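Sat 14:20. Reprocessing the chain from the morning session after the first attempt stalled halfway. Input below, unchanged.
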Amino acid sequence: MDFITELFSQDVNVRMLYIIILSIFVGIEVIEKVPTILHTPLMSGANAIHGVVIIGSIIVMGKAAEGDLLVEILGFLAVVFGTLNVVGGFVVTDRMLEMFKKKK
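Finished this time. Tokens:
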């Protein structure tokens, strides 16, 4: 139980919030440096990697206390949005690859 208590302590949550804010700034800086021609392939690949979000949300939903409706709803929404992101990444990649096929 110490791990759960420590996980939800305010100090750890504040550190996690700092990490998220810093990662947003780093992400913005990295994306700004990507040439325009590479932006679509990079984003479609990144969307496909969001399968990690799906797995994480399934784990969170599995670990939720019975009857904790908020966690179950947020987990379900994360699964839905993560799935849409993964499918969208594959659709965009497929459309890009179609552009390079020779026409008959």
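Residues 34 and 42 are 9 Å apart (CA to CA).
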